[in-house]
Each structure stands twice: as structure tokens, then as C-alpha cells.
Amino acid sequence: MNIEYNYGFLDENTKRMLRRGLLKAVAIPGYQVPFGSREMPLPYGWGTGGIQVTASIIGEADTLKVIDQGADDTTNAVNIRRFFGRVAQVQTTEKTGEATVIQTRHRIPETALQAGQVVVFQVPEPEPLRTLESSEVETRQLHAHQEYGLMHVKLYEDIARYGHIATSYDYPVMVNGRYLTSPSPIPKFDNPKLHQSPALLLFGAGREKRLYAIPPYTDVESLAFDDHPFDVQTWDSHCALCGSTESYLDEIITDDAGSRMFVCSDTDYCATHQQEAKQ
Amino acid sequence: MTPILSVRQVAKRYGQRYGCREVSFDLYPGEVLCIVGESGSGKSTLLSTLAGKLAADEGEVTFRDVNGTEHDLLTLAEADRRRLARTEWGFVTQHARDGLRMNVSAGANVSERLMALGQRHYGELRATAGEWLEKVEISAERLDDRPSQFSGGMQQRLQIARNLVTKPRLVFMDEPTGGLDVSVQARFLDLLRRLVHETGIAVIMVTHDLGVARLLAHRTLVMQQGRVVEAGLTDQILDDPQHPYTQLLVSSILQA
Questions:
Q1: H or E element that contains B206
Q2: Is the dihedral of CA B29, B32, B38, B44 positive or negative?
Q3: Any bridge partners for residue B219, and if so which?
Q4: d(CA A134, CA A149)
């Protein structure tokens, strides 16, 4: 049986609704816009929010890159890329520089983003205050009145318990000096890339039915204390494959005798680096 | 002296029925006012209405802030009300779990209001929190313990510290001694009396325990079926009750 899907899988009315939501999200940086999330042919937690955002903005002229934890070759990334290749007839790529739309889970590419690119983030929990305040009614009030002392309670608790701010991913940010926002579960290593980014950053949470955005060249500040400033992860070693000392490294266990190696989490960046080294 | 809170003919309706009605009084800085009455007499409704947690249906409530600016609490914008609640008011609940964050440390509980006001120095926050724990007779060593590890009396004292850390001028208390046994209650009241005396805060406290009123309150309102049936100096009311209901209330205390 051969099923004909509408261009981009979603029907035109749904895409229009999403675009309206996205326009509002861009107009109010960091504000969570509710939308009518649709059932998608993949389970919640696999990127239903991201895939809907991508479906609503993608066109035939686009080149799509999909990464999962920085890698282009994981099941999730391969399947989403193939999905859009089929339902939207777009070119796909693994090169960050060639992509016009980059859908990502848990990372921002190491290669600097450019003006004109769009990054779509998959978000499991759009509400940064959720672990501290379970009521949606209350968190909306807190956003409305810009009462964000609660977020610092979490950071305070981190320092009290571990001696430093132990939150290492999904590290809360203030967008445009107004809305407290979850950057999605990217490592805090990537937080500085959000600040004054030349690319448009869109966030979609499918299960929680929320869209939000950080427009290009917007101020994004990671929260911290005066005497415990924000800092990013560092490593003692460099990438075992390409030798980079500037990228985010994953620890890989190579046997059952405790051997391990550190390699770039961004596969495209690592491969490019290795080739440059060969020449 | 001008009152910090003026209440005129305040009423709160639940459907057709009145939760409380025709309540009027003035509260002056540094004064402790107790509202006593049996269950269902409308005292907690009145407290929540005054604190802005419930919207009043009739009357007028005027609050004078630290700069002497008058705020009409019944028409106040939500943003302003929340700002007052953060800076000028405190609210101590009967059950500590309603007033505390049980899953974060005592230090974080005390610091929360400071952080809400924009303090961003961890070392200073922690030092202030430690000082306040000592002030409410909790060892500063317990700073990193969670309230769930505290006894009932300690939890109530932690609530006090959490509220007073930003030096509010008016604190609402809803049966703060409700779940405490008598010896713990006595220590708690002692502490409260000392803090009120030292800091000069005004307190409106709801209680059904006339002993608490006797110990703490300068003035007492007696409520029955949503109305204030008698009001005056606490000693006067307890020693020479005029209204039949107050007489009944006073006579039902066991004389030890």
C-alpha cells in the first residue's frame, strides 16, 4: 500500500497553527506558547515537538541536518532525516555549514552557527521551574510577574549539597532579560552559544505542547551567584580521534577492564577535524 | 500614630452565605491582634481575605507601606499585591508543609525570600540564613538539613525565620501553634513574643486557643458566625467578657 502524505507530513492547517505559534514565540523571546500538539509517527520523548516544528518550517529549498547527542549516525537522527527526505523531499546533510535547518537533541553543533540557519531543539520539559513548582497555574503566574527567586533556590541547594552548582545540563537561562527559559537538555557547555547567536533557535515540546524561541542576536544569560559564577565543563584530555581540545567530549568505555577514551560528541566536527589533520 | 492596616466593613461571601461580614478594625505597628472563635466562625476566611489570598466581596482594606503610601488591598493589581507579600508581609501557616519547601534544605527555605528580592551572593545568603536559624533557636549546624528531618516545633520556628528574614512589617499567622504539644507551644510563644518585641512587627493571628491570645495579644477580636461579636484589649475581654458567646468561650477553659 502506498500512502500519499501532505508535504511535510502535517496537514496545512496544523502547519499554519504551528507557524502562528512560532511567530508569537519569536516576538516574545523565551515565552512558552501553547499549541495543539499532534500525534506523530514516533513516541513522546523521541522528538515529537522538534519534528512538528521542523515540519512546519521546512521547504524544498532547505537542507536538513539532524543530530542526537551531537551524532549524525544514531537511530533517532538517521530516522528523522530519512523521514523528512521522504515526506518533504529535502536534501539532507551531515555538514553543519551546509544545513539550513538543524534539528537537534541535547547538543548545539561545535561549528559556529551562521545567520540564516535555524536550529530546532527537541524539548522534554519546557518549564524550568517544574521540579520546584508542580502547578502549571502557579508557574505561569511566576513567569507573568517575573518572580524567579525560586530558580535560585535550586542553585543554592546545589551548592549547599555539592559545593558547586552541580546542574550540568538543562541549565536555566534568562532570555532577553525577561523570561526564565529551559535551554532543553543541552550540556551547560553549550549555553554560551545561545547568547547573541546569529541563528534562529526554535524549541518544540510535543508532550507538553509548548513552543518557544530565541531570535537571532538575543541576550541569553545563564543564572548564577555572585560568588559562584557560571562556568562550563572542562576536560583534562583531548579528543582521542581528532585531538580537539575545544569540543564537548563523551567518555566511551572500550572494554570491561576499565579502559576508556574521550571523543568529540559532535561527529561532524570530529570527522572534519580528522580530515584537516591528514592534509 | 497611623494604623498600618485599616479594615472597614469587610465581607467575604461563599455563594449566598457569608464567610465573614461587617468586620472593622485598625491595626497599629508593633501590635499583636488575635482573632479567636470556634471552628467555622469565619476567622481563617477573614485572615485569608486580609492577606489577599481570597478576594473580598464588600468593604475596604487599606495598608500603609514603609514609605507611608496607602494601598487599597481590594483593588490592588496582582503584581503589586505579590510585591507587598514578598517585601512587607509574612504568612505563617498551621501546617509547616504548606508554608515550607519540604524538599530543599532549611538554608534554602530561609534564603528564598532574599533571593526573590534579588540577593545573589551565596556566602552572604548562607550567613544570613544561619543567623536567623540561631534567632529562632535552631542550631546553625542544621542549615543543610531538610525540614522533613525537623520536629513539628522546629518546623514552625523555621517558618517564622523564613518569613522574618526580609523584615516584613505585618505577619499573618493561621493557628501557628495548632499541632504543637503544650511545652513546645510555650517555647514557641516565648520566642514569638521576643521577636515581635525586638522587630516591632504587627501580627494578626488566628487561634482557637484563648491561652495563646492571653500570652501574646494586645487586642482580641471574638468571632461567631462570621461576625465580630466582641473586640477590645485582651485582658479586658478574657477577664470581663460581655457577650454571651465570649462568656461561654472563657468559661470553657479548664482552670488548672
A1: strand B202-207
A2: positive
A3: B33, B233
A4: 16
Measure the CA–CA gap between B44 and A78, rounded to whole angstroms. 60
Q: Give the pLDDT of residue A245.
A: 92
DSSP A97: G
The answer to whether the Cβ–Cβ distance between B115 and A152 falls below 8 Å is: yes
Asked about A258 being catalytic, the answer comes back as no
- Taking residue A227's Cβ as centre, other Cβ atoms within 10 Å add up to 13
Report chain A residues touching chain B, CB-CB < 8 A: 132, 145, 147, 149-150, 152-154, 156-157, 159-161, 224-228
In chain A, domain spans: 12-222, 234-279
pLDDT tens-digit readout, B29-87: 999 999 998 888 899 899 999 988 888 999 999 999 989 899 998 888 888 888 899 88
User: Across residues A102-117, what is the average pLDDT?
Assistant: 96
pLDDT over 70 (residue A104): yes
Flag if A153 and B125 touch (Cβ within 8 Å): no
- Domains detected in chain B: 5-88+168-251 (3.40.50.300), 101-167 (no CATH)
- Reply yes or no on domain A12-222 having CATH 3.40.50.11310: yes
How deeply is A38 buried, as exposed, middle or buried, from its count of CB atoms within 10 A (0-12, 13-18, 19+)?
A: middle
Q: Where are the alpha helices (DSSP H) in B36-121?
A: 43-50, 78-87, 96-99, 106-116
A-B Cβ pairs (cutoff 8 Å, strict): 54
Residue A242 bears catalytic tag:
yes
Catalytic status, residue A264: yes
Q: Which of B81, B125, B146 should we substitute to test contact with A (largest number of A Cβ atoms within 10 Å)?
A: B125
Residues of chain B with pLDDT below 50 are none
Q: Specify whether A49 is catalytic.
A: no
- C-alpha angle A85/A90/A96, rounded to 5°? 100
Tens of pLDDT, residues A180-208: 999 999 999 999 999 999 999 999 999 99
Q: How far is CA B60 from the centre of its chain?
A: 20
Q: Please list every residue in chain B whose beta carbon sits closer than 8 Å to the beta carbon of residue A229.
A: none
Residue of chain B minimizing CA distance to A160: B144
Element (H, E) at B220: strand B219-224
The β-bridge relationship of strands B219-224 and B227-233 is: antiparallel
Of A30, A49, A70, A206, the active-site residue reads A30
CA distance A104 to A265: 13
Q: How far apart are CA A70 and CA A51, in angstroms?
A: 17
3-state helix, strand, coil in chain A (%, to 5): 30, 20, 50
Q: What is the pLDDT of residue A279?
A: 83
